[in-house]
Amino acid sequence: MQTWEQLQETQPNVVRMLKNSILKNRIAHAYLFEGGRGTGKKAVGIQLAKSFFCINKTGAEPCNSCIECKRIESGNHPDVHFLSPDGLSLKKEQIKDLQREFSKKSVESKGKIYLIEHADKMTNQAANSLLKFLEEPDGQTIAILLTEQVQQILPTILSRCQILNFQPLTADLLLQKLLQQGVPAHLGKIVASLTNNINEALAIISDDWFAQARNIVIQLNEVLLKRGHHALLFLHENWLSHFKEKEQLSVGLDLLLLWFKDLLYIQIGEENSLIYIDQKELLEAQSMRFSQKKIVDDLTVILEAKKRLNANVNPSLLMEQLILKLQEG
């Protein structure tokens, strides 16, 4: 269970607007929450439902302990309905069923709330069916539409909703949340540099493949520093056998890019910005071998390799050429 205060840490503008609407009893009849995955759209929608129905709220804050709050939290409230795509899309019949619910009086409370996930996946027929409710709203009914692709929503629907933009988590805030959940700092720091989605970050951290990938990147740089003539052998025996798929190799290049950014941070005295915080000794030793220009050139080479990967260049050849360029100068 989250509070408005906790939600405000990640979405201050959205929460401020909703809390003001609750306190002034000016909740809109239709909202569109738009933003990337993991930005808290559904959590805010559930919190809004609690604030609407709670019988013991303090200001805008629901109590989280009354029967109304508990049933909303468990997904069992008779007047709070969740709708998600049936297969790949939200279909006309699903909206028709929703409209039939719209026409009924609330079961036991002051109104109804409908939360429609992936609203951008409505078929045209479904979207047009939804317009009727949005054009003729019942004052006791609230619709909350969630989307990651606002450009896919019909303009006629957009014009009838209050649109709230959910911003992605900053790296620092995501790291803070990961640390609160017991994630080791050295893993949290690197994952927060790869994604701004808390759920995706947790999934990455729990994947043994990722932990091994990070170790291989570190080992590659040890080889480049201490046994450069073995780098191509390491590439074929360790790197290519782990980063087998195109998406995996892309992650490997991202991890390598972060390593060379750390080399630059060492060079310019920005140690507080390090991502590989547990590898400072190796980073310092490697950075002493390079000029700032060399590190910047290597960062460019890695970025170019990522670009070529997307152009379907042979992965083995791509990495061989990258290693040779990293060894130059």
Automatic annotation (TrEMBL):
Gene3D superfamilies: 1.20.272.10, P-loop containing nucleotide triphosphate hydrolases (3.40.50.300). Residues 241-327 form the DNA polymerase III delta subunit C-terminal domain. Its EC number is 2.7.7.7. It catalyses: DNA(n) + a 2'-deoxyribonucleoside 5'-triphosphate = DNA(n+1) + diphosphate. GO terms for cellular component: DNA polymerase III complex. InterPro entries: DNA_pol_HolB (IPR004622), DNA_pol_III_delta_C (IPR015199), DNA_Rep/Repair_Clamp_Loader (IPR050238), P-loop_NTPase (IPR027417). GO terms for molecular function: 3'-5' exonuclease activity; DNA binding; DNA-directed DNA polymerase activity. Keywords: DNA replication, DNA-directed DNA polymerase, Nucleotidyltransferase, Transferase. One of its GO terms (biological process) is DNA-templated DNA replication. SUPFAM superfamilies: P-loop containing nucleoside triphosphate hydrolases (SSF52540). This is DNA polymerase III subunit delta'. It comes from Schinkia azotoformans LMG 9581.
